[in-house]
Amino acid sequence: MATIMEKESLIDLIAYATSIVALRMENSEQYEELMDFLAEKRHWTYATPHEEIDLDSEVKPLQEMIKKYKALPLLPQFQKNA
């Protein structure tokens, strides 16, 4: 069971994961699958009452995804010019 604020934090975490993937992955089948997964997760989170959200089981896979893709370099178009 999550509080309203925890639900908001989950929505923020989904948005952060989406940005991490978008900045580091080329457009590919894997990219599309990840973005579809994150869009579905966002939709589910908005549609589900906060009392029905198991925060731990929702946050852990997102944190793992963020850790995995944050280790990748930014795509060239998002790197600072030297």
TrEMBL record:
<protein>
    <submittedName>
        <fullName>Uncharacterized protein</fullName>
    </submittedName>
</protein>
